[in-house]
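Notebook entry, structure prediction.
Reason for the run: the old model in the group folder had no record of what sequence produced it. Starting over properly, with the input documented here first.
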Amino acid sequence: MKKLLLLYFIFTIHCCFSQTEKPIKGIVLCDDSPVQGIEVVNLVTEKTAITNSEGVFLIAAKEEDMLVFISKKHYYKRLFLEKEDFKRNSLRITLTQKPEELEEVIITKAPFKSKGFYSQAAADEINLEKANRPKPIGVYDGVILNSPDFIRIGKMILAVFNKKKEDKKESHAKIEFKELTKTNFEEEFFINSLKLKPEEIALFLEYCDADPKSKTVLENSNPLLLLDFLLIKNKEFKNLK
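New structure, fully documented this time:
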């Protein structure tokens, strides 16, 4: 009976010691290089450790505990501890690095900036260089010496034409306003109703035409709107005297 109790006592002590946590050491590598800052977690006891600059960690654990190795730059890895792991001097854990995530690239439309290669100044320099370049005597190269710049001349003519067209259009608008007024009202209207002198009628119409509202009156061609406009402008015209 005493022997049986002794065996039971020894077995109990052995079981207790076998379940006692022991410090276990290891090294974490990636591509055969030590990795620093890897978090080692014992999922059973919830104890943690961090690898140092040499990739080494030390954590308390026991058989059948689960160690997890966590890193943002490496894939998750776990290790189920067995009896043989505690007999080793150090565990060797190899992690696989995750592919690098590229930052989001935002493509924006940038305004095109010309370097001015085809600017007039650059064109003049190119023409000057061509003119000073030595040419073989008696050989025609297709270049007309002292030829005028037809493109520039064409632009100048077009600008003059557009200017004349605008002047003509403006003059035409003034004539239309005067004609519209004279078509709807006789000279007696300006003299008797507006109390204008005959020599003041032309000046008064110019004064009315200078008002931007005259364009609206001209577009509508409404006699009542024209009459109201002339009465208002007549009061302003009289106040100028």
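Summary: Strands lie at 22-30, 33-34, 39-42, 48-50, 56-61, 66-70, 77-80, 91-94.
The old model has been moved to the deprecated folder.
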